[in-house]
Amino acid sequence: MNYRAYAAELVGTFLLAFMVHMGVGGQLPVPTPVIAGLTLGLIVYMFGAISGAHVNPAVTVGLWSIGKIKPKDAGLYIVAQFIGGFVAYALGSAILGESLQVTVENTTMVAAFELFGAAILMLGISSVVYGKVSDAASGLTIGTALTLGVFAASVGSNGVLNPAVAIGIGSLSPAYILGPIAGAILGTWAYRTLVR
Hints:
The chain is mainly α. It is 73% helix and 0% strand.
């Protein structure tokens, strides 16, 4: 049991979901996609060497699909990530004094845009996983990929790309679960095919 890795996934997912919660509900001067990208980049530098800094169930499923994480660890990562998302939602709601007023739709279009954004994110992550990006640039690469993926998905969805963060901001529906997972698998396999 790699408790340090599971703890890193819980804390990292909490930080990401909490900062996105604050970005959506706290009227911060920086756009939420930029906050998310900066936060994820920092998390990669902080926890990448401990757990790989997935902090996203879709990312974990994508990496499991190519054998980069064992099934048992993948399952426990996902449990830790969802706990992190729940804690972020509870704390964010307590700080802001109310739950976020986020429109939650469950349509094919929403799922398609979430898929597209998650695929962009996974292309960036895969470039790190396959050693095409130096360790020093890993956080920058993955944070940028998330920022661009969120901007792209936001055209037709809430631009979440992460089921655990969807919990953290109260934007959970099947489209926000299945879309990112399908996109993560697609992006991972597309990059794997290109590299090979």
